Amino acid sequence: WKTKQEMADEALFLLLHNEMVSGVYKSAEQGEVENGRCITKLENMGFRVGQGLIERFTKDTARFKDELDIMKFICKDFWTTVFKKQIDNLRTNHQSIFNLSTAKFLHLRKFDQWKVYVFCSFQYLAFTCGLIRGGLSNLGIKSIVTAEVSSMPACKFQVMIQKL
Amino acid sequence: WKTKQEMADEALFLLLHNEMVSGVYKSAEQGEVENGRCITKLENMGFRVGQGLIERFTKDTARFKDELDIMKFICKDFWTTVFKKQIDNLRTNHQSIFNLSTAKFLHLRKFDQWKVYVFCSFQYLAFTCGLIRGGLSNLGIKSIVTAEVSSMPACKFQVMIQKL
């Protein structure tokens, strides 16, 4: 159960995120090429926000042991701050791939109601991919983050760590 | 004193807001006319977010007695949800003007450090003006909201209610 304040924070984030997505799309021309540029723009916004958040969150945090320890922090503390819940499931191949899955992703909520929007879903995931990538980057991990929607509103993020 | 979660929410909002402001400005051409259009765009974003928030907040709220009652709600509940503190001072001429002042406005924080940004300050106030106007609009009050920075980071918002 979420408190009233948590629901309000979630609503604020949801509304701001929607404004960002539609702002980026409105300011660009239509067309497939431009769509790619919008995704990149949103991903970069997420990246900077993720960096800023991690900077503030890890001030009083103990040093991390390893990559798995960092990924657990992202799935628990970081995710809870932003989305008011943890990532439901974290899997890894114990090399460089981590799969984070959530049964109910905040920004996919509206697709429950308006099924026509399903094809545009990636524009609602780009910011969050950037958020994860930015957070990891500030903890010294270079990564590629992609997202996949199998069945709404469930969602899977894949983090591929780029070894130096 | 703020909790860790409140500080995190504040940071998230601050970072998202900064991304919105710089996103709107980056996507526009430079020049004075365009600057006016950016302000309007940010104000409109704030308006829609304010409408959305009030819609969610007032679901279980008792009906308001009058305009002063509504303004008090905006200064207490609404402001606390968004900014994690109340408006410090509310004054009215008991006709149609309300002055809301706050000694430390969240989005003016960076100006403490970089004084050069002081002239651009209105771009950091437009979204919040819209937020108030959108909130009031959903409560049936048509208004014009302006902002004024006398000494950083203090800030005053003026609400002029438009009688029908």
From TrEMBL, chains A, B:
GO terms for cellular component: cis-Golgi network; endoplasmic reticulum; trans-Golgi network; TRAPP complex. GO terms for biological process: endoplasmic reticulum to Golgi vesicle-mediated transport; nervous system development. It comes from the Eukaryota. Gene3D superfamilies: Trafficking protein particle complex subunit 3. It is found in: Endoplasmic reticulum; Golgi apparatus, cis-Golgi network. The keyword Hydrolase does not apply. Homodimer. Part of a TRAPP complex. Heterodimer with TRAPPC3. The heterodimer TRAPPC6B-TRAPPC3 interacts with TRAPPC1 likely providing a core for TRAPP complex formation. Component of a transport protein particle (TRAPP) complex that may function in specific stages of inter-organelle traffic. Specifically involved in the early development of neural circuitry, likely by controlling the frequency and amplitude of intracellular calcium transients implicated in the regulation of neuron differentiation and survival. Belongs to the TRAPP small subunits family. BET3 subfamily. This is Trafficking protein particle complex subunit 6B.
